[in-house]
Amino acid sequence: MTKQELLSLYETMLLIRVFEEKVLEVFTSGAISGTAHVCCGQEAVAVGACSVLRRTDYVVSNHRGHGHFIAKGGAVRQIMAELFGKATGYSGGRGGSQHMACLQCGFLGSNGITGGGIPIATGAALSLKLQKVDSVVVCFFGDGAANQGTFHESLNMAAIWNLPIVYICENNLYAMSTHFSEAFKVSNVAIRAQGYGMASEICDGQDVLAVRDTVERAVSRARSGLPSLVECRTYRFRGHSKSDTCEYRTREEENAWRHRDPILLFGERLKADGTLTEADLESVSKKVEREVEDALAYARSSPNPPTEELERSVFA
Fold first, then answer.
1. Domains located in the chain, CATH noted
2. Which of 16, 17, 111, 297 sits 20 to 30 Å CA-CA off 162?
3. Long-range Cβ pairs for the range 154-157 (8 Å, 24+)
């Protein structure tokens, strides 16, 4: 990879982190009502995976979807505006955190239902195959969603119909507060692919280049009509949602994973091999901070949706 490509990976991961931290701040302050599910700690999965996709490829996300959207090319200005319920948001202020989409950049939407995006992604992959379009779908979901019926039905369908799709399980060890070991008899999610005759791989979700390499192979298979299941071992630094204090896990466990922060690891790697200097990293940090502050200001100053459009795009 070129220096610019490596820098882009680092900058996008940092942009997601700073954006998510700002989202928590504004939700906690009461500036936005409701809740938020941030992906701090899991940035390498979104960025590594989306870095091998074309603009004409598609992504389907879950409830923790801001990072996937940004990694697929979503503008933080419009994402933040959507969180504020403003007319300038991607869904005109109607979707909020869990239900925004952008067809132009191939983001088919986040989803507030656990496992709800998996059949949507599978249907999109079927559509691409029927249209004979050289595009693929990447579907992100957590380990908790892998125990939903939609997971099994969708993977079986993708396998027997040879659909152009990559299922990416972000195994962060906890489905809300339930540890992986309490919900699975097997040691990993990837092994389940064997039951469908589907290829699978496991990678270090804290290493953006490992994710990139693994997903690149899976995407190549998908373009040939061979679906895959990729399990990325990762960890969310924050709670399941903004109100979760994580009483179900130890501080020792959290600290151990903090030492595997994907942004810090990649930054140190780039400095060690001479790709970037400390000054370069500082410059990126300041740039990202300005971008997120600009997004916040844009969201705050954007107009609310007009009341006369209350019933537009609503179907019953």
1. 3-299 (3.40.50.970)
2. 111
3. 154/118, 154/119, 154/121, 154/122, 155/192, 155/193, 155/196, 155/198, 155/227, 155/229, 156/196, 157/122, 157/126
Degrees, nearest 5: CA angle 92-96-100: 70
For every one of its 316 residues, what pLDDT tens digit does the chain have, with 9 covering 90 and above? 899 999 999 999 999 999 999 999 999 888 988 888 999 999 999 999 999 999 999 999 999 999 999 999 999 999 999 999 999 999 999 899 999 999 999 999 999 999 999 999 999 999 999 999 999 999 999 999 999 999 999 999 999 999 999 999 999 999 999 999 999 999 999 999 999 999 999 999 999 999 999 999 999 999 999 999 999 999 999 999 988 999 999 999 999 999 999 999 999 999 999 999 999 999 999 999 999 999 999 999 999 999 888 788 777 6
Cβ atoms of 207 and 261 closer than 8 Å: no
Rounded CA separation 144/49 (Å): 20
DSSP H/E element including 233: strand 228-233
Name which of 163, 108, 94 is nearest 311 in CA terms.
94
Give the global pTM: 0.96
Q: Please answer whether residues 145 and 180 qualify as being in contact, where contact means their C-beta atoms are separated by less than 8 angstroms.
A: no
Two structure tokens written together for 233: 């071992």
Cα three-residue angle 140-14-104, rounded to 5 degrees: 50
User: CB–CB of 139/117 below 8 Å?
Assistant: yes
And the tokens for 232?
């990325």
How many Å apart are CA 143 and CA 287, to the nearest integer?
34
CB atoms inside a 10 Å sphere around CB 105:
15
CA proximity to 14, closest of 252, 219, 312, 270: 270
Question: Distances in Å between the alpha carbon of 220 and those of 119, 135, 216?
Answer: 21, 10, 6
